[in-house]
Write a structure and sequence with these properties.
With 331 residues, this protein is of the alpha/beta class. The chain has a single domain, classed as Aldolase class I (TIM Barrel), CATH 3.20.20.70. Helix content is 39%, strand content 16%. Strands 1-4-5-6-7-8-9-10 form an eight-stranded parallel barrel, surrounded by nine helices. Helix 3 crosses helix 4, helix 5 packs across helix 6 and helix 8 packs across helix 9. The longest helix has 17 residues. The protein is globular, with a radius of gyration of 20 Å. It binds ligand PBG. Ligand PBG binds next to helix 7.
């Protein structure tokens, strides 16, 4: 039985900085961070994204410098998202399968510049390539079809793996895609390409700035509720994770981040596997808005929220604040 006050005074441990350091249960390091980067056409381009202040799209010739920056900061992995030109978007998203698309050129640019000093994670989903902004093929009734989409996702993942992707991350929420992608990778000899599955991805209002960044916001008709999860559901997230692990996912992701830390914790306790979370664009924008309004201090907000992910059980976090956080952690 634990002692009671006054024999027990929990404030003793908090009384000085050295003691707080000694008692600290969770440690955040740059190695816990994955930095999402947006890629765009052209050369010499840096295009700021209005709804993501401080975040830009970079042309392929400037993307490797970002990856080098990540290496220098101790960030082990970058995640790539393309802003496909409107002229290359189509109902069937065929540009996703082009081995010379923006994504594949960016992967090769980073590989050429950084070798194997950094992991390259690629997004597997059709929304940056569809003219309707949905993550899959749409039938005559406007429904996003599952199995036909999965066939394309496998091809997309193989094109990315061939270009040098280290982790393919399906963010589409189609049923059965992890197993199909895993079989495809095995068949093509990509035995060490990891799958980080967006296993519990919610139909969230926090994705708006991302859709600006990849240019799909104005295109999207309707919503994504027929494939992304209902924010009211937790048990269903565990079923999604169980399926993706059984199909061969190396790690799983929960997305968005902070509003879903209960899901992170439940997944970690139930499955004891590497769990990642995506602190998404709307969460980043909220922190920036709070800082700009003088309602909070940016650096403290960033480190506190990222530490909360670790405490909840995350192995790592995808965050647009990765370079800032790494600089702060490196002193
Ligand atoms: C789409 C995708 C989205 C994000 C990552 N991949 C948006 C969506 O599902 O509409 C969101 C990331 C963010 O908001 O930062 N496949």
């Amino acid at each position: 039985m634990a002692a009671a006050y006054p024999a027990l005074r929990l404030r003793r441990a908090r009384a000085s900085a050295w003691s707080r350091a000694l008692y600290r249960e969770t440690v955040l390091t740059p190695a816990d961070l994955i930095w999402p980067l947006f890629v765009t056409e052209g050369s010499g381009e840096e295009q700021p994204i209005a709804t993501l202040p401080g975040v830009s799209r970079w042309s392929v010739d400037r993307i490797a410098a970002r990856a080098k920056e990540a290496v220098a900061l101790g960030i082990p992995c970058v995640a790539l998202f393309p802003n496909t030109p409107a002229a290359l978007r189509s109902p069937d998203a065929r540009e996703a399968l082009n081995p010379d698309n923006l994504m594949c050129r960016a992967i090769r640019a980073i590989r050429d510049a950084c070798g194997y000093d950094i992991g390259v994670l690629t997004d597997v989903a059709l929304d940056p390539y569809t003219s309707h902004g949905q993550d899959g093929l749409v039938d005559a009734a406007g429904y996003v079809v599952n199995d036909g989409t999965v066939e394309l996702l496998v091809e997309q993942a193989l094109v990315q793996a061939a270009a040098g992707a280290d982790i393919v991350a399906p963010s589409d929420m189609m049923d059965g895609r992890v197993g199909a992608i895993r079989a495809g990778l095995e068949g093509a000899g990509h035995l060490n390409v990891q799958i980080m599955s967006y296993a519990a991805k919610y139909a969230s209002a926090f994705y708006g700035p991302f859709r600006d960044a990849v240019g799909s916001r104005g295109l999207l008709q309707g919503d994504k509720k027929s494939y992304q999860m209902d924010p009211a559901n937790g048990e269903e997230a565990l079923r999604e994770v169980a399926l993706d692990l059984a199909e061969g996912a190396d790690s799983v992701m929960v997305k968005p981040g902070l509003p879903y830390l209960d899901i992170v914790r439940r997944v970690k306790e139930r499955f004891e596997v590497p769990v990642f979370a995506y602190q998404v664009s709307g969460e980043y924008a909220m922190i920036e808005a709070a800082a700009a309004a003088g309602a909070g201090e940016r650096e403290a907000l960033v480190l506190e929220t990222l530490t909360a992910f670790k405490r909840a059980g995350c192995s790592g976090v995808l965050t647009y604040h990765a370079p800032l956080a790494a600089r702060l952690l490196n002193g």
